[in-house]
Amino acid sequence: MASSPLQLSTPLRTLFLSPSLGRLPRIPFQASLFWQRVTPKTLVFSTGIRGVSGPGRFCSRAKASMAGTTTEKGKGKVEVFASEEDLSVSLAKYTADLADKLSKEKSTFTVVLSGGSLIKSLRKLVEPPYIDSVDWSAWQVFWVDERVVPKDHDDSNYKLAFDGFLSKVPILPGNVYSINDALSAEGAADDYETCLKHLVNSGVISVSAATGLPKFDLMLLGMGPDGHVASLFPGHPLVRENEKWVTFIKDSPKPPPERITFTFPVINSSAHIALVVCGAGKAGPVHAALGNGRNSEPLPVQMVSPEGEMVWFLDKDAASKL
User: Transferase as a keyword (predicted)?
Assistant: First the structure.
């Protein structure tokens, strides 16, 4: 899909060209074309490019497991797996299937990542058959939330994703949209929203016909033990924000305190949401969201309700109270 070039703001363009970016690890360039013959149960993917990677652009420009038990709930499909390993295998196939379908339809695949254990659960995507069969050149990568820290800081969701996923797959570095960590929390949130608007206007990100908001192809969400998603925490006023696409928080109950986050209107405009939850410590919020109980104030995870498809990927411990 052709698109008009994105115009960078001066501070972001300056930061993108800064020599300080050189401190991040680089991935060797390797170009290849491939075609893989596979069994009927395995996806066939088209040609792809094994290419460069690196710190990406600032957003201003940066075999399936059958062990799962699937049920249909009012809030989407629920898949429960005997182990986190089985969950990871199924999540990789789900993501690869979706990427293959959508990238063939419209030449791009917009993916939103979160932090926490989600990146670990994506690890099967960096292994065969997916590493050499997914059309990684179609991927456009974003973050549902980010900590306002340098990109090489241990608290950075970018660093987490880079170390565990992005550095291992040939996604084009210009298709990775990270925040401008040289700005304040408020400035970084405004800048990221401006970036999204540019990409919507240029056709890289689709638009929801229902809301007029950006419609990401796949949002990969985790959940905290308190039921928070993104950086939207229980009882915090930001869970009710309905004007901004991207907002900021300076008093996060979980450190570090300064973060940016997508708001629920944008999250819920997604075409597909995969909510990935592992561990017995998260069984309570899972039950609150999917069980029959009622609570006076919904947890943030209960407010995730996309206009498209939602699939819960749970290990047996996270589902133990259902």
Answer: yes
